[in-house]
Automatic annotation (TrEMBL):
PANTHER family noted in UniProt: KETIMINE REDUCTASE MU-CRYSTALLIN (PTHR13812)
Stored InterPro entries: NAD(P)-bd_dom_sf (IPR036291), ODC_Mu_crystall (IPR003462), ODC_N (IPR023401)
Name listed for the protein in its UniProt record: Ornithine cyclodeaminase family protein
Pfam families: OCD_Mu_crystall
Gene3D superfamilies: NAD(P)-binding Rossmann-like Domain, ornithine cyclodeaminase, domain 1
Source organism per UniProt: Lacibacterium aquatile
């Protein structure tokens, strides 16, 4: 074995590459299209809990995107109290390999990738399942992924009204200030969940609860809205699925019974959401195998648990751009 090198992209490299909104969305949508056309391998995420799930845990995501010629494994920590130490709650490493030989190809700081790909999934879900004229967004949560949710939704819908809420006052106000600066729009900060989400066209629930608590009331969701709940601990009522026309997930294998965590975990375990009443995986819609929104009256839901394919697709986009711009380091493997 000789001459094997690995490309290393650190956080500064990823920032310097500065993927555009359209580059992010195109990469993630390409991964979804590959999934919808059965050109991927997805292993359901697994978890490593060092002490207690209330303190934090690691997610391990694994997959192969055949059209890109890459396999990937991402390890991401999710530790809710990291802000007390001046650290982001989620930090990640993405390892990329040749799926034909197993040869290591790259190591990438995937903290920003995790945030971008989550926002892209939210936005692409809305692209296919929300009303085309959606103009009002209610967003719960101010974690790292929240920024990209709002930024990419605004990119696609040119929103007229954006409402945000999170548990800590300083967190929600800081989040709003960042959004106002970057989007050039007034952001409405609310003191409670109801005033944030009632009557909104799009509702995103990205809360950080220590245990499942039904904070988001079903009665607040207006007919025809699009809702994305993806907190690790459920914040929704059991009745939420009762009002939905279409329920879509990123990957049913990661949502089925017997797995921990997730906004609709109890709904699955108690057969409120099943493989039979599931409308589609988003990749099937992107690939044209299943329809997205078909009428203005539909009230639709998209539950995404985090798709390894999106990490791999964004990793590929970063590597391609880095090679053109001469960014990154080459590490000798053997």
């Amino acid at each position: 074995m000789a001459g094997i090198n690995i490309t290393y992209l650190n956080g500064s490299d990823v920032e310097a590459l500065s993927l555009t909104n359209d580059e992010i969305l195109a990469a993630v949508e390409a991964g979804l299209n590959a999934q919808g056309n059965s050109q991927t391998v997805i292993e359901p995420r697994v978890h490593l809990i060092p002490e207690s799930s209330t303190k934090g845990h690691f997610n391990v995501l694994r997959g192969v995107v055949k059209p890109l010629g890459l396999a990937g494994v991402k390890v991401v920590g999710d530790f809710v109290d990291n802000y007390k130490q001046g650290l982001p709650s989620e930090m990640a490493i993405l390892n990329l390999f040749d799926p034909e030989t197993g040869m290591p190809k790259a190591i990438i700081d995937a903290t920003a990738i995790t945030e971008m790909r989550t926002g892209a999934m939210t936005a692409l879900g809305a692209k296919h399942l929300a009303r085309k004229n959606s103009k009002r967004l209610g967003h719960i949560g101010a974690r790292g992924t929240s920024y990209w949710n709002v930024r990419l939704l605004d990119h696609l819908f040119n929103l007229d009204e954006i409402r945000v809420h999170s548990r800590r006052k300083e967190s929600r106000e800081g989040f709003a200030a960042t959004l106002e600066k970057d989007l050039g729009k007034k952001i409405i900060v609310t003191d409670d969940w109801e005033s944030c989400v009632r009557e909104m066209d799009i509702v995103v629930e990205a809360s950080r609860l220590p245990e499942p608590t039904p904070m988001l009331k079903t009665e607040w969701i207006k007919k025809g809205a699009f809702i994305v709940p993806y907190g690790t601990m459920s914040a929704v009522e059991m009745s939420l699925t009762d009002i939905m026309t279409k329920m879509v997930v990123d990957d049913w294998g990661q949502c089925r019974k017997g797995l921990p965590f997730g906004a609709l975990r109890r709904h699955v375990d108690e057969d409120k959401l099943t493989e039979e009443n599931l409308h589609a995986e988003l990749g099937q819609i992107v690939a044209g195998k299943k329809p997205g929104r078909e009428s203005e009256e539909e009230t639709n839901l998209f539950w995404h648990r985090g798709l390894s394919l999106s990490d791999i697709a964004l990793g590929h986009a970063l590597l391609t751009k880095a090679a053109k711009q001469g960014i990154g380091q080459t590490l000798k493997f053997d």
